[in-house]
Amino acid sequence: MSLRTRISTDMKAAMKAKDGPRLSTLRLISAAIKDRDIAARSEGDDAAVSDAEIQTILAKMIKQRAESARTYEEAGRLELAQEERDEIALIERYLPKQLDAEVTAQAIDAEIAALGAESIRDMGRVMAGLKAKYAGQMDFSQVGPQVRARLGG
């Protein structure tokens, strides 16, 4: 089942269950996907947004909510920060499980070895390979510095 179908099915279930917070978050997800569909069509791409693109959208939504939760906490608005964390938990259910630090390190080492990467000039190839294999499973903002350190950068 595609991510789009899963989200739609869950949204219908939330409507039937009258689960307001869950329904609201699922509607936000659906709207973000539809916005991306419209943007793709305006660029001349008539194909629907892929699951990989949906995962990217969801990861971006999580990052936005994490920043909002931090801002709310700093302002003493703990109830709003908790709402943001609840939304993050719901959105994360549609993403693949994140790899832990040890598995991520092993994947980085394996990719460097597979490509024969030896210097910082090979970082782009290593990152591209990791993104192709582990999209949605790694936080690439944290992986980049690890790759750079291993390549002597």
Q: Outline of this structure?
A:
The protein has 153 residues and is mainly α. It has seven helices and no strands.
Chart the SSEs and their pairings.
Blueprint: H1 3-17, H2 20-42, H3 51-74, H4 78-92, H5 101-115, H6 123-134, H7 140-150
Question: What can you see in these coordinates?
Answer:
- This protein has 153 residues and is mainly alpha-helical.
- It has two domains: 3-92, Uncharacterised protein YqeY/AIM41, N-terminal domain (Hypothetical Protein Yqey, Chain: A, domain1); 101-150, Orthogonal Bundle (Arc Repressor Mutant, subunit A), CATH 1.10.10.
- 75% of the residues lie in helices and 0% in strands.
- It contains seven helices and no strands.
- It has helices spanning 3-17, 20-42, 51-74, 78-92, 101-115, 123-134, 140-150.
- Helix 1 runs antiparallel to helix 2 (20-42), helix 3 runs antiparallel to helix 4 and helix 5 (101-115) crosses helix 6.
